[in-house]
Amino acid sequence: MRNKRALKARLNSGFAVDAISFVWFSFAIINSNFKIEPMSRIRLLPEILASQVAAGEVVERPASVVKELVENSIDAEARRIEVSIRRGGISLVRVVDDGCGMDRDDALLSLERHATSKIRTAADLTAVATLGFRGEALPSIASVSRFRLTTREPAAIVGTEIIVAGGRIETVRDSGEAPGTQVEVRSIFYNLPARRKFLRSENTESRNIEHQLHLQAIGHPNIAFALVRDDRIVFQLPAVSNLLERIRDLHGNDLVERLIPVQEPSASRRVRIRGLIGQAGVSRQSRDQQLVFVNGRAIENPVLTAALREGYHTALMKGQYPVTFLFLDLDPAAVDVNVHPAKREVRFRDPASVREAVVETIRQTLESGRRQWQQQFQKPIDSGDISPPVPESSFPSRGNRPDVSYLEPPPEPSSVQTGTGNGEQSIYPPADADRLAATSAVRGVSAEQIARDNKIGSQQFQIIGILNKLYVLMENQDGLVLVDQHAAHERILFEELRRRMEAQGVPSQRLLLAQTFELAPRDAEWVEQNSATLQKMGIGIELFGQNTFKIDSLPTFLEVSDPVTFMRKVIDGLKTASNGSSPLRLGEEMIAKTVCRHAVKANDPLGYLEVEKLINDLLQCDLPYCCPHGRPTMIQISLTELEKKFGRKV
Ligand code: ADP
Ligand code: MG
C-alpha cells in the first residue's frame, strides 16, 4: 500500500517515469512481501580467481601456453624464438626471445588482468595489427602454474625477474639475463587438479605443441624458431626470406615439389591471397597441413574450410584434406578477431566475398599447375622421330572400335587412321593433322589452336606399352610415367561434360516411355529448386502433380535400366552434396558421380591410337592429374628414383 502511495506521489510530482522504473515499481508492488537479504548474493571475484576463470578459456593445454607466449614474442619483434618443453609441456614450457623486453614497471603490469600495450581505445579494437590484444594471457597462465618471467630491454643495464606461484607474486628482483624475454611455466594446473585430469598423454601434448609451433613458423618465416623436447632438438629453423624455404626446412623437398604458388585473384578484390597450395591429387588424411592465415593469424573458420573444399572440388579424394599454406590479407576492419578467447577464430564482415575469392583462387591456381606439369611431357627423343617404339602386338586390337569416343558416335575409321587404309590399325601414329582433328572433335576447338597452344604437333611423350590391361607406360624427360587409363578417361569425360553443361547443356535422349514417380515433400522441393540445373545435366524432369514428377529424358551417355531408381539415387546423392553449393557445382557433382560408369573399364584393351589420343586429351584437361574423384591419373617415377633403386646412386 505504501508502495502504491509512493508511486502515485512520484507520478504526481511530475517526474518523468520511464518504462523501466515503472516496471520496477510494479514488480515491487506485486512482491511487496519480498525481503532483501542482509548480504548480497552477488560478489566480485578475487583477482586470482577471476584469472583462473579466464585461464579456463585461454589456457586449455600446454600448447595454448606455447601459443600465447610465442605470439607475445612475435609481437615483441623477436628475431629468434626458442621453445623448450619437458614432459609434453606439463612439467615445463620455456619460451626465450630476443625481442624488445620490458622495464620493471611494465613487467609487473603485464601480469595484471586486462593490461596490454597493444590497444588503447575501442577504435583500436576494430583494427588490431598485433597477434595479442586482450591482455589476458600472462595473468591467466601465471594463475594456474609456477611462473617465472625474466625480461630486459636491449639498452638496460639490468633486467627484472618476477616469480609467481598460482597467481601470487613471490619475488621481484634484478636479473642479469640477455636482452629479450624469457618465460618459464612449470607444473601447469598444479593448483587445479580437476583441470590437470583433462590433460592427455605427454606424447599427444608434445604433438599439439609441435603443431602449434609449425603454425607460427609457417606464419613468420623471417623469424628463427627452435623446439627442444626433453633436451633433444626437434627442429631448428633459420630465419629465411620466403615461405617456400620455410616449408622446405619443415617438411622437406618432396612436399615443396608438389606445391604450386597461389595465383592472385583479380586486383580489384578486397581480399589479397598469397601462399602455396598442394597440386591436385596432393592430400592428407588430417587437417594438419590445411593452414590458413588471416592477417598473419592462423585461424580455423568454417567458411574458409568449405571454400577450400569447393575450390579443390574434384581434385580431392573423399575423406581427404587439402594441403594449403594460404595467407589472406584484408582490411583489419573487415574481420572481427575478437570472437574467441584463444583468438583461434575470426568472423568476416562479408563472408560470401571471402569465400568466393578463396574458391576462385584455388581453382585458378590448380589450373595454372597444369602448365608446369605439362612441361614434364617434353619429348625424350629427337624431334622428328614419330614412330611408336613398340610393335603393334603390344596393343591388342579392339576390332572396329578405332577411337575412344566420349559423347559422339565413333568417327569413321578413316578419319583417325593413316597407313594401310584397309581398316587395320597402323603401327604408325596418325599424321599430326589427323590426330589434331580427332582431338579437336572432342574439344570443339580448332586444331590449329590446340597445336599453337600446346605444341601437340611435336609428340610430347613416348608410349612404351600397357601393363595389366590398365596402366599405360610412357617415357618422358624425367623418366617413367604410369597412367591409369580408367582414371584418365574419367577425367576427360568429366571435363567434356562440364563444358557442355556450361555451354548448351548435356545431350539427352528421350525415354521410350516417360515415367512418373512421387517424392517425399522435401525431395520434391529440392527437385523444383534445382530443375534448371537438372535440365542442363540432360535430365528431363518436370512437375506432374503434387510431389509427383515426370521423367522423360536422360543424358545420352548413361545406360540406365530403371530411370526412377536412378533418379532417386541422384537426388539422394546430390541433396547431401548441394548444401550451399552453386548450381554449377551441383552439376559437376552429378557428372562426377555418373561419369565413372561410362569411362573405359579398367581392363578394356585399347589400341595404340586410342591410347595416344587418350593421353593427348588428358593433357588438354584443366586438371589432368587426377580423376573427378581426386584419385591420381598418373604417377611419375623419375630416373633419379630408378637410379637409387638400382643402387647406381646413393
Ligand atoms: P596481450 O598480448 O594481449 O597484450 P599478454 O597478457 O599476453 O596480453 O601480455 C601483456 C603485455 O605484456 C603485452 O601487451 C606486452 O606489452 C607485454 N609482453 C608480454 N610478453 C612479452 C614479450 N615476450 N616481450 C615483450 N613484451 C611482452
Ligand atoms: Mg599476448
Quick recap of the structure?
This protein is of the alpha+beta class.
| Strands in their spatial order, largest beta sheet | 5-4-3-6-2-1-7-8
**How much beta, percentage-wise?**
15-25%
Please bin the fraction of helical residues. 25-40%
Stretches with pLDDT under 50, minimum 5 residues: 1-32, 378-459
Mean pLDDT: 78
Largest sheet: 8 strands, mixed
Number of strands: 24
Global outline: globular
Structural class: alpha+beta
List ligands, each type once: adenosine-5'-diphosphate, magnesium ion
Give the termini distance in whole angstroms. Answer: 100 Å
Number of helices: 23
- Taking all Cα atoms into account, the compactness measure Rg is 33 Å
Brief descriptors of the model:
five-stranded mixed beta sheet, alpha+beta, 650 residues, binds magnesium ion, disordered N terminus, binds adenosine-5'-diphosphate
How is this structure best described in words?
The N and C termini lie far apart (100 Å). The protein is α+β, with helices and mostly antiparallel strands and 650 residues long. Residues 1-32 and 378-459 have low confidence and may be disordered. Helices cover 38% and strands 20% of the residues. A hairpin with a 2-residue loop joins strand 12 and strand 13 (297-298). The protein is globular, with a radius of gyration of 33 Å. Helix 15 crosses helix 16 (447-454). Bound molecules: adenosine-5'-diphosphate and magnesium ion. Magnesium ion binds next to helix 4.
